[in-house]
Design a protein that fits this description.
- The complex is a heterodimer of chains A (about 650) and B (about 325).
- With about 650 residues, chain A is of the alpha/beta class.
- Chain A is about 50% helix and about 10% strand.
- Chain A is built from 22 helices and twelve strands.
- In chain A, β4 and β5 form a beta hairpin.
- Chain B is mostly helical and about 325 residues long.
- In chain B, α6 packs across α8 and α7 packs across α10.
- The chains are: A alpha/beta (about 650), B mainly alpha (about 325).
- The interface between A and B is large, with 74 and 71 residues.
Chain lengths: ~650, ~325
């Protein structure tokens, strides 16, 4: 057991020291990081040593060889006075880079200091600084620089220091934001408890945490300072000719644009490449910082992908699809990941839905209920895809692994409502507009006709149509939003409605109303319903049949009464027992021990076997097929011990 | 909505004061002063003193500021030290050119930027990489250099567009259009890539929204989902960045107007700097600030239009 003081130290060591070391190395190991750092170092060193390595004096004129292109004598050619361009670039870099350094230093000192103080201490100082930053950032930077140049008589130093001051505000913002976030971290709280002074906390805990963003921001600022420095020299307001500077060289190129366009190339490229290098360096640092603070997530992802696809037992009972069914699914399997490292999430789903039938889908979270429904809609989220499966709707077959082919079914053949009612409405448009659009999409009628239909639909879901029509989703309660969502799902007269836990996110008092509404709507039509739920009460109330899913497989299909009286799969049996409706007064609610196995970590044989009370060695030998029971029953279960379970839950 | 605009206008008043005070404070801390800058060191003391009195520089700083504000309220920004013209007259004659450039950049970079960004959010792969590469180029080339390259290619080599100068619309609409193409292109290059990248990020974010899945589940067409629903929901960060980019563009006109010799506020600023004409620079600072305030105001109005929550409350 570590005391809290020690805890602070342990964390501080972890955060400040071990993480910091290797940071530079990791930036260096990124290709773009390495290239940009190398470039910057080479340019800075070359310019600093200009007087040693430059082949010519930058001011020496040689009128005999003016405006020459690149040659061995003049690697980058000569200008209109015959001066060597390479030498002028090297010497000009000194003035330019010193200007950038002045601005960056000013911006760093002011921005970091004030940002740390404002972010760490907060309060009135933070608010005051915030106001000032807003004000200064709205100032016309270049015009301010021009007035500084007037007042300080062409002094580049004062212009760059002023630019640094104006730019420090952006640095300040970033530092303040980072500090604010770091201050809320646990290790800072621990450090405070352990009695470190504010100064120590800032230096040892906060600064390492915000160092990455600071470096990124300063490299961005440096590149802008470079452009401004070059720009002022280009305008003839900075370094006075004939002294060379990068911007001045561009200005000289402008003078001879007609006769010697070549001069534009070296002068522009040196600025552009340096700006690019600063930008790429910033990117590399930012990427490294991101890796550093989110390495945990990457690890767990790798872990789950390590196990490759288990030999999926693609279902044996690929029976004929019954002619009367409105919707049939055959051999639906869903995988996660990509290419070779995919993992089966849902496998071998088969079921049929008949006109007017209401089927419940149950199972614990993570069993694939919602994914199965989304696959039928062709709406699986990124990273999940259907590996096999056929959907038959009203006699026509569709491939589930081709989501695009399913687009035409949505809304007209199959409608769906979701768990979260408010977020499932577009926040940017009025309710009426959204319903109108769906109706017009399906029926191609005029705006006015669509509006009438919308109002009628809103009335059918027991809403005050005229009022709700004009509301934005953010103005609706969960219950109202779910009614709107139901109206929208029904707008295209679908033959099947999929309701994915439609009441889970609602207040208990509203749940019954919404369920009653769905029941009323369904009973007045021949629409079939698939109801995904956790609630046996809802199933008992509304459904004719139930599908029990476990770990991505259907483990039992049965009429509700059969399931109640003779659950044939131990999972259904335990799930029913865990239902609060059957709970005995005064006794704890029974639960199923263990957890649903993660995709990729499922057993070879029966997926439920590790948690099963009746499992035997046979269960783990291989995949278990679905088995039918009797001629007069449609009940099927994926269990080799189902006969041992043939007693009702109530009696156990 | 009216309240929103009023709030923004009121909150921008301090900004205007800051701009004017900043220029005055700069004057106060200056070694020497404006009169010395204008006159140089060669002027006899008596004439120098006369110049100081003429400029009001013998008065205490707060008094000078008071006078400046008083004149400002009467719509005057003083007279140019160089041309003796009222500053306001000079600025107003220059303003349209700068506004044409800024408005042109706005139209070009918003259309192309949003289009590019949206398309690359749908086709992330190749188009996304192309956009990344383009934005690296767009952000690292200094715009005044790009301007010279454009002149060199389109005016000098191909001879299809004028190299420098400005034709007023009333003189010849065609020549006017030809004259602003290159300046606007040079100014818009970086903004296009910035807006495109922001649009892509915001679109990817919006397309991941729960309501997008529900809209698809209702059978709404992909075209409407992308260009109407996702784009409107992605618009707020895009509008924010457009505002920022337009303010940066305003500053960039200083360089571009100089490169293309356009008679706008930017080139006037450079000229005034060369001539040490402080009243003109102060006037331009004020105009630039007012344009900045106007841009921010438009951004706020756009927020209100895009986000129902802002409008309702």
């Amino acid at each position: 057991m570590i005391g809290i003081e020690n805890l602070g130290d342990v964390i501080s060591v972890h955060d400040a020291e071990s993480v910091r070391q290797g940071f530079i190395k990791r930036v260096w190991h990124k290709p773009l990081g390495m290239i940009s750092v190398t470039y910057l170092v080479v340019v800075i060193v070359a310019c600093a040593l200009a007087s040693l390595i430059a082949p010519y004096n930058p001011l020496t004129q040689d009128l005999a060889s003016f405006q020459q292109g690149p040659s061995l004598a003049h690697l980058l050619g000569t200008d209109s006075l015959g001066r060597d361009v390479l030498s002028r670039l090297l010497f000009g870099g000194q003035a330019t880079l010193i200007g950038v350094a002045e601005a960056s230093l000013t911006a760093s000192v002011i921005g970091i200091t004030l940002g740390l103080i404002a972010g760490y201490f907060g309060g009135w100082f933070d608010r005051l600084v915030g106001r000032i930053v807003d004000l200064i950032m709205s100032l016309p930077t270049i015009i301010i620089l021009l007035s500084v140049i007037i007042i300080f008589n062409q002094s580049m130093l004062s212009a760059m220091v002023t630019y640094g001051f104006l730019g420090s505000m952006a640095v300040l913002r970033v530092v303040r934001g980072g500090t604010l976030a770091a201050r809320e971290e646990q290790f800072v709280a621990a450090a405070k408890v352990s009695g470190l002074s504010n100064r120590q906390i800032i230096v040892r805990h906060i600064v390492p945490r915000v160092a990455g963003p600071i470096i990124v921001q300063i490299s961005i600022f440096s590149s802008s300072a470079l452009v401004v420095q070059a720009g002022l020299s280009f305008l003839g307001l900075g370094i006075a000719p004939p002294a060379p500077s990068w911007g001045g060289l561009i200005e000289e190129a402008q003078q001879v644009l007609l006769g010697d366009p070549w001069l534009l190339v070296p002068s522009g490229l040196i600025v552009a490449l340096t700006v690019l290098a600063l930008g790429l360096f910033g990117d590399a640092v930012r990427d490294t910082t991101h890796e550093r603070w989110s390495s945990g997530g990457g690890f767990s992802r790798k872990l789950s992908l390590k196990h490759t696809s288990q030999a999926s037992e693609h279902s044996t009972d690929n029976s004929e699809m019954p002619i009367g069914a409105v919707l049939s699914v055959r051999d639906l399997s869903i995988a996660r990941g990509s290419g070779r490292v995919s993992v089966d999430v849902v496998s071998g789903i088969n079921f049929d839905l008949f006109p007017g039938e209401k089927v419940g889908v149950v199972g614990e979270s993570g069993c694939g209920k919602t994914l199965t429904m989304l696959a039928i809609m062709g709406l699986l989220p990124k990273g999940l895809f259907v590996t096999s499966g056929t959907l038959r709707i009203r006699g026509k077959n569709y491939s589930l692994s081709d989501p695009k082919s399913l687009a035409g079914l949505r809304g007209t053949e199959v409608g769906m409502i979701f768990q979260q009612p408010v977020p499932s409405l577009d926040p940017a448009f009025r309710v009426g507009h959204q319903l109108d659009e769906v109706i017009r999409q399906h029926f191609g009628i005029s705006r006015r006709q669509a509006r009438e239909k919308t109002l009628e639909l809103l009335g059918r879901v027991s809403l005050d149509a005229e009022v709700i029509y004009k509301k934005y989703p953010s103005e609706l309660s969960g219950g109202m939003a779910q009614r709107v969502a139901i109206a929208r799902a029904l707008a295209g007269n679908p033959s099947v409605l999929i309701a994915d836990e439609p009441t889970t996110a609602l207040d208990v008092s509203i749940q019954a109303e919404v369920l009653q509404l769905i029941r009323n709507l369904v009973e007045s039509t021949t629409m079939s319903v698939i109801l995904v739920t956790h609630d046996w009460g809802v199933i008992a109330d509304m459904c004719d049949r139930a599908l029990v899913l476990y770990a991505g497989q259907i483990v039992e299909v049965a009429e509700i009464s059969e399931l109640w009286n003779h659950a044939r799969h131990p999972y259904s049996f335990e799930l029913l027992k865990a239902n609060p409706h059957f709970a005995e007064r005064g006794k704890p609610l029974p639960t199923i021990d263990g957890r649903v196995p993660e995709p990729g970590q499922r057993p070879v044989g029966c997926y439920y076997s590790p948690r099963c009370k009746v499992s035997s060695e046979d269960c783990d030998l291989g995949a278990i097929p679905m088995v039918s029971f009797g001629h007069d029953s449609n009940q099927m279960a994926r269990c080799i011990h189902s006969e041992r379970l043939a007693s009702s839950v109530g009696e156990s | 909505m009216a309240k929103l605009i009023l709030n923004r206008v009121i909150s921008s008043i301090p900004l205007l004061f800051v701009v004017s005070i900043v220029t005055f404070v700069l004057e106060a801390i200056v070694p020497g002063n404006a009169a010395r800058s204008i006159a140089g060191t060669s002027l006899p003391p008596a004439q120098y003193e006369a110049l100081r009195v003429k400029l009001g520089l013998n008065l205490p700083l707060w008094k000078q500021y008071e006078l400046w504000i008083e004149r400002l309220l009467h719509g005057s920004l003083g007279t140019s030290l160089f041309t003796n013209q009222p500053v306001v007259t000079e600025l107003n004659s220059r303003l349209p050119v700068t506004l044409v450039l800024v408005a042109g950049v706005f139209v070009v970079c918003t259309t192309i930027g949003v289009l590019l960004g949206t398309l690359s959010s749908i086709h992330e792969g190749r188009l996304g990489k192309a956009l990344d590469a383009l934005s690296m180029v767009g952000l690292s080339l200094p715009n005044f250099w790009v301007a010279l390259v454009f002149i060199s290619i389109f005016a000098i080599s191909l001879k299809v567009l004028p190299a420098t100068g400005y034709t007023y619309f009333t003189q010849s609409p065609m020549e006017w259009l030809k004259g602003i193409i290159l300046p606007i292109a040079a100014l818009a290059l970086a903004p296009i890539t910035i807006i495109a990248k922001q649009t892509r990020d915001a679109m990817l974010d919006a397309l991941g929204g729960t309501y997008i899945r529900s809209l698809r589940a209702c059978g709404i067409s992909e075209r409407s989902i992308i260009w109407k629903h996702a784009l409107k929901n992605a618009a707020i960060p895009v509008v924010t960045i457009i505002g920022v980019v337009m303010i940066v563009t305003l500053s960039a006109t200083v360089f571009i107007e100089a490169a293309f010799v356009l008679p706008g506020l930017g080139s006037l600023a450079v000229q005034a700097t060369e001539q040490h004409d402080l009243p003109v620079i102060e006037g331009i600072a004020l105009y630039f600030t007012l344009i900045t305030v106007a841009v921010n105001l438009l951004v706020d109005v756009a927020y209100g239009w895009l986000n129902p929550k802002v409008r309702v409350s």
